[in-house]
Amino acid sequence: MNAPTAFPDQSKPVPPYKHTPLFPLGPDTTPYKKITTDGVRVEKVLGRDMLVVSREALRTLSEAAFGEINHFLRPGHLKQLRSILEDPEASPNDKFVALDFLKNANISAGGVLPMCQDTGTAIIMGKKGCNVITDGDDEAALSQGARDAYLRRNLRYSQVAPLSMYEEKNTANNMPAQTEIYAEGEDAYKFMFMAKGGGSANKSFLFQATPSVLTKDRLLAFLKEKILTLGTAACPPYHLAIVIGGTSAELCMKTVKLASARYLDALPTQGSPDGNAFRDVEMEQEIHKMTQSLGVGAQFGGKYFCHDVRVIRMPRHGASLPIGLGVSCSADRQVLGKITRDGVYLEELEHHPAQYLPEVEQALGGEVVKIDLNQPMKDILATLSKNPIKTRLSLTGTMIVARDAAHAKLRERLDRGEPLPDYFKNHPVYYAGPAKTPEGYASGAFGPTTAGRMDSFVDQFQAAGGSMVMVAKGNRAPAVREACKKHGGFYLGSIGGAAANLAEHCIKKVEVVEYPELGMEAIWRIEVVDFPAFIIIDDKGNDFFKELNLG
Question: Of 181, 246, 291, 463, whose CB neighbour count within 10 A is largest?
Answer without folding.
Answer: 246
